[in-house]
Design a protein that fits this description.
Blueprint: H1 2-11, H2 21-37, H3 42-56, H4 67-83, E1 98-103, H5 110-123, E2 128-133, H6 138-151, E3 154-155, H7 164-177, E4 182-187, H8 195-208, E5 212-218, H9 223-235, E6 240-244, H10 253-262, E7 266-270, E8 278-280, H11 283-290, H12 294-320, H13 326-339, H14 342-346, H15 352-355, H16 363-374, H17 378-382, H18 389-399, H19 403-424, H20 433-436
Parallel strand pairs: 1-4, 1-5, 2-3, 2-4, 5-6, 6-7
Antiparallel strand pairs: 7-8
This protein binds guanosine-5'-diphosphate and magnesium ion (MG).
Guanosine-5'-diphosphate (GDP) binds next to α5.
InterPro entries: AAA+_ATPase (IPR003593), P-loop_NTPase (IPR027417), Signal_recog_part_SRP54_M_sf (IPR036891), Signal_recog_particl_SRP54_hlx (IPR013822), Signal_recog_particle_SRP54_M (IPR004125), SRP (IPR004780), SRP54 (IPR022941), SRP54_GTPase_dom (IPR000897)
EC number: 3.6.5.4
Main location: cytoplasm
Length: about 425
């Protein structure tokens, strides 16, 4: 797998200061193979490798990373950069109904995805109307009606109307009248891109002005999926992508290619034929899938742990200069949570034992402390003394806690800082968080 190959490439390099051109190129060849295996399209691979190359050459190797680790980290970060680093939910309109239009080739999974989304939203108490606009295949309309019956979700009755544009227009009007939360239009697809299909989809879009056009792509189509996405993007315009059949052995290359050619976020993935098999798209998970499953991720975890070591040294310097602030404190808590066993670890931060005296240590307590710090502005985190009464109320509201809890945290943090100061002033020996944590 990729991580092993990169390790091999870099074995001989250990200890050198910078990533050199020839070393990077050797690694890029390995990465290229991994991306081809994942079915990423060639132009995308080419762009991507050029980017990674530029980022890598001459980069200082972090003290604690081997060049192999460093390369994997760059590749990982670049892939995540390409895919976006967070989930992209559907944007609902302030003025219901939100109109969602599904487009894509026949068999890509449009109708199934309509059912999955509707099921999800129904569970959230949203009132949804489904619209069968695939008028060419009676079976398609029947499929949606069956879904609607099973899910107990209303399906628009088009009567004798055969024009998809008219059906969609009427359905949206009805949804407005009925104060529906969302309408999902299930449009027709063909085996292949053709002008008549694109023209129809475009006319529906112009007439109905949907809030979101979701392109549904079959991930098993690999590279081809990107070309189809591009056609829909150019001819119709899309706002997001649903990648279906990710339960198969597709390695996720389609995600990268589609995002790259359309620039649109992948919002959901379909992971099975059943109606609960829909998940928000997490770029980081796909990245590890593309690079060769978990191996690379565990390698990166290792690299990041090493990276954390450097951060700890940085932390030590901050403590010495008395510049340790609430943000650092929160980062430390996050680190601990990643590592598990809270109780044990906390005893090791100076002052923390006191801070948590008599407190039942459970993960919840930490989540609350984190929430409080997250609700502060960066400025407040750096200057905890400035947090006055009204700010405390805002922070408490924002974090779903109360002013008492905010007060307690601030007081304890102040005590902790005092303790740190004492320790680093020499009386209690040299303060070295690296050895403590
Ligand atoms: P449409 O023509 O675009 O409306 O496609 P359909 O929704 O009718 O789906 C075509 C086929 O793909 C059906 O057999 C679905 O059960 C199947 N399908 C859809 N989504 C998924 C998925 O995420 N995983 C798997 N394994 N099958 C899927
Ligand atoms: Mg269909």
């Amino acid at each position: 797998n990729l991580s092993e190959r990169l390790e091999a490439v870099y074995k001989k390099l250990k200890g050198r200061g910078k990533l050199k051109e020839s070393d990077v190129d050797e690694a890029l060849r390995e990465i290229r193979v991994a991306l081809i295996e994942a079915d990423v399209s060639l132009p995308v691979i080419k762009d991507f490798l050029a980017q990674v190359r530029e980022k890598s050459i001459g980069q200082e190797i972090l003290k604690s990373l081997t060049p192999g680790h460093q390369m994997v980290k760059i590749v990982n970060d670049e892939l995540e950069g390409l895919l976006g680093d967070e989930v992209s939910p559907i944007r609902f309109s302030d003025q219901p109904p939100t109109v969602i239009m599904m487009v894509g080739l026949q068999g890509s999974g449009k109708t199934t995805t309509v059912g999955k989304l509707a099921r999800l939203w129904k569970k959230e108490g949203k009132n949804v109307l489904l619209v069968p606009a695939d008028v060419y295949r009676p079976a398609a309309i029947e499929q949606l009606n069956t879904l609607g019956r099973d899910l107990e979700i209303d399906v628009f009755d088009a009567g004798d109307e055969k024009d998809p544009v008219a059906i969609c227009t009427q359905a949206v009007q009805q949804a407005k009248k009925e104060l529906r939360y969302a309408v999902i239009l299930d449009t027709a697809g063909r085996q292949q891109i053709d002008e008549a299909l694109m023209d129809e989809v475009r006319r529906i879009k112009e007439k109905v002005e949907p809030h979101e056009v979701l392109f549904v792509a079959d991930s098993m189509m690999g590279q081809q999926a990107a070309d189809i996405a591009k056609s829909f993007q150019d001819a119709v315009g899309i706002d997001g992508v649903v990648l279906t059949k990710m339960d198969g052995d597709a390695r996720g290359g389609a995600a990268l290619s589609i995002k790259n050619v359309t620039g649109k976020p992948i919002k959901y993935i379909g992971t099975g034929e059943k109606l609960d098999a829909l998940e928000p798209f997490h770029p980081d998970r796909i990245v590890s899938r593309i690079l060769g499953m978990g191996d690379v991720m565990s390698l990166i975890d290792k690299a990041e742990q090493a990276y954390d070591l450097e951060q700890r040294e940085e932390l030590g310097r901050k403590v010495k200069k008395n510049a340790f602030d609430l943000e650092d404190f929160r980062d430390q808590l996050l680190q601990f949570r990643k590592m598990g066993s809270m109780q044990e670890l906390l005893g090791m931060i100076p002052g923390a034992g006191k801070m948590l005296k008599g407190v039942q240590i459970d993960d919840n307590a930490f989540v609350r402390v984190e929430a409080i710090i997250n609700s502060m502005t960066p400025h407040e985190r750096a200057h905890h003394n400035l947090i006055n009464g009204s700010r405390k109320r805002r922070i408490a509201n924002g974090s779903g806690t109360n002013v008492n809890e905010v007060n307690k945290l601030l007081k304890q943090f102040a005590q902790m800082k005092k303790m740190m100061k004492k320790m680093s002033s020499g009386k209690m020996g040299r303060f070295n968080p690296g050895s403590m944590l």
